[in-house]
Design goal:
Structural class: alpha+beta
Oligomer: single chain
């Protein structure tokens, strides 16, 4: 049956706003905690329950048990980005509760009970990344204390049954992570100080001995192996490779690690035969392999996955991970290594899109300024029932990932498919500074944030326009957080994009450096330079400095409880748009922080997005959405 012809952007889509609002980001909030003969333990987000996170166990027989009842939220605010919010020891489960910051314990089918003391105010004491001593008596974890504006990070221990106060194990450094207890009782951990972030440089310690690391070496996932050796991933040779007791096991020009934005990451796990199941990232395309630590040989596994999150937990001859392919949504899967097969335990979305309506992303390379290459994944408009007119090209959504030390992934996700099934092209850019390409590519952003990322997102859009794949007059750009920063800068300092969407984007860098949370408070030293010497760079790279030059229509979204990028950053941009009569919509979200977790927030955002772009790019959305007033249009 021939396809119907309709303007790009106006195609009816099988993905409703309500469906996409709950699962737009295929990864957001999903965490694998553990995998062994007691089953698999994970955290899953519940957008329809106010965005709370639920600790779930699937037992060996297949039954599913929810360990955190309503009223509990298995998340932590340490570093604001969290991670490492749950752990277990035998039949005892531990989790950090987002509402009050305390650690709770669950035994069997019992109710959660607190095992850390109540703070003077909610979340004044925060905990993450815990492990239990082999005898089950003590928990060792990261604690972040907030008192009178001062933030102190330490390693502490406390009785696992809650019978005593926490005792400080290590203190004096700005940050700690990954406390791990060796078979002989020795404690290994990571530590670093301002102005570093752990993916720039950190140190690996065992008790009081410095084992590896420094300001130019980023170490990830120190782990004691079943052989009693200490393993870790380091980028000392320019790529995240695997080490054991100081011996380099691999020397690949691919990445076996991941930037440590959150606690509890794991990109490798120990199999029963002595080999290691590993995540392998090559130019931001993910795969899995099995490494023989004796020979250094990596056997690729024939699996369909091209994207994953840093959760690899091995047991016996299997491992669990969170992965996606270009045609299948992210899922927690258990891979049987000898059989070369996998089982889906739970999908992040149960929605099935007809294969003919799936836009399959493809990697693209394109020229960037300075004789550089830059990278992206392009998703063309695709719909089983509709196609665009022969004399029309589709609008482009240029997607800029956050971080900025992060990456775009080649994966099926309803957020992108929501756009492509309506007749949009989407390019997901891995600008210079992105991860998955080695340390040298990552360091392209050193001192150059607001330059290299801006150049590469412009180059990506122009590349597709010049190739005749998208309409050069309907190029748009969008991003959240650091991606929102690049979006605002692109609108202010170029005329390439006709419209843009910034979600909780950084607008004014001097204020941001002074007011953002501790973990990232010196990140800008590396991205821009040290204050006060680099004050003019901060001002020049701030979108707000150039906001009066914005003429392209803008959609601005901001969580009013955001502690990472405070709301006044968005409000200052909106004030400039109003002052200059620039078409815009401002969407403030009560009760949302850095990232929108609630289903109703997603519905409101996507509805506004369709109304906004329908008016700006002159198409009528097929969805029944309210036509919002665009101020200044």
């Amino acid at each position: 049956m021939p396809k119907q012809v309709a303007p790009y952007g106006s195609w009816p889509s099988p993905i409703s706003i309500e469906r996409a609002a709950g699962t737009g980001d295929p990864w957001f909030g999903w965490v694998i905690v553990d995998f062994d003969d007691d089953g698999i333990l994970w955290i899953e987000p519940r957008p329809a329950e106010g965005g709370r996170a639920v600790l779930v166990q699937r037992e060996p027989g297949g039954s599913r048990v929810e360990l955190t009842p309503p009223g509990f939220d298995a998340r932590t605010r340490v570093h604001e980005y969290g991670g490492g919010a749950a752990w277990r020891h035998g039949d005892a489960f531990f989790f950090s509760n987002f509402g009050d910051g305390r650690v709770y314990r669950v035994d069997g089918a019992g109710d959660p009970r607190p095992v850390t003391p109540e703070a003077s105010e909610p979340n004044a004491l925060r905990y993450a990344d815990g492990r239990v001593t082999p005898d089950g008596s003590q928990v060792i974890c990261v604690r972040e204390s907030h008192r009178a504006g001062d933030v102190v990070n330490e390693l502490v221990s406390f009785p696992a049954d809650g019978s005593g106060e926490p005792a400080v194990v290590r203190t004096g450094r700005d940050f700690y992570a990954a406390p791990r207890i060796g078979p002989d009782g020795r404690l290994s951990y990571l530590a670093w100080d301002h102005p570093l972030l752990p993916f720039l440089g950190c140190e690996l310690w065992v008790e009081d001995d410095l084992i590896a690391g420094g300001p130019d070496e980023a170490i990830v996932q120190p782990e004691w192996g079943p052989d009693g050796a200490l393993y870790w991933v380091s980028d000392r040779d320019g790529w995240w490779n695997l080490y054991r007791d100081g011996e380099q096991l691999t020397a690949f020009e691919v990445e076996l690690g991941y930037p440590m934005w959150i606690f509890g990451m794991s990109t490798y796990g120990f199999l029963a035969d002595g080999r290691l199941a590993c995540t392998v990232v090559d130019k931001a395309v993910h795969s899995f392999g099995v490494l023989d630590p004796g020979t250094g040989e990596l056997e690729p596994l024939d699996l369909p996955f091209t994207a994953s999150m840093p959760y690899v937990h091995a047991y016996g001859d299997r491992f669990a991970t969170l992965a996606a392919s270009p045609t299948e949504s992210a899922a927690i899967v258990v891979v049987d290594v000898p059989a070369g097969s996998y089982e889906k335990v739970v999908r992040t979305s149960d929605f099935e899109l007809p294969p003919e309506s799936i836009s399959v992303g493809r990697p693209i390379e394109f020229a960037a300024p300075g004789a550089r290459k830059a990278y992206a994944f392009y998703y063309p408009p695709t719909n089983a029932d509709f196609e665009g007119p022969a004399d029309e090209l589709p609008p482009l959504w240029t997607r800029i990932h956050g971080g900025p030390t992060s990456q775009a992934k080649l994966a099926f996700g309803l957020g992108i498919q929501f756009l492509t099934s309506r007749g949009w092209g989407v390019v997901d850019v891995n600008y210079g500074g992105s991860t998955g390409f080695g340390r040298r590519y990552r360091e392209l952003l050193a001192g150059e944030w607001g330059v290299v990322d801006l150049e590469d997102c412009i180059a990506a859009a122009r590349h597709l326009a010049e190739a005749g794949e998208v309409d050069p007059k309907r190029l748009s750009i969008a991003g959240g957080s650091a991606g929102g920063y690049t979006t605002l800068l692109a609108l202010a300092r170029s005329d390439v994009f006709a419209a843009g969407t910034s979600a909780y984007g950084v607008a004014e860098l001097v204020t941001f450096a002074e007011t953002t949370h501790k973990f990232e408070s010196r990140y800008l030293d590396w991205l821009l330079g040290t204050l006060p010497d680099a004050i003019e760079v901060y001002r020049d790279r701030s979108p707000l400095t150039h906001a009066d030059n914005i003429r392209a229509a803008a959609l601005i979204a901001q969580g009013l409880d955001d502690e990472v990028v405070p709301p006044d950053q968005a409000e200052q941009i909106v004030a400039a748009l109003v002052r200059n009569g620039v078409p815009h919509i401002y969407l403030p979200f009560e009760g949302e922080g850095h990232g929108f977790r609630r289903r109703e927030s997603g519905i409101r955002f996507l509805s506004a997005w369709l109304s906004f772009y329908g008016q700006v790019f002159a198409f009528e959305p097929a969805d029944d959405v309210e036509r919002l007033e665009i101020v200044g249009l």
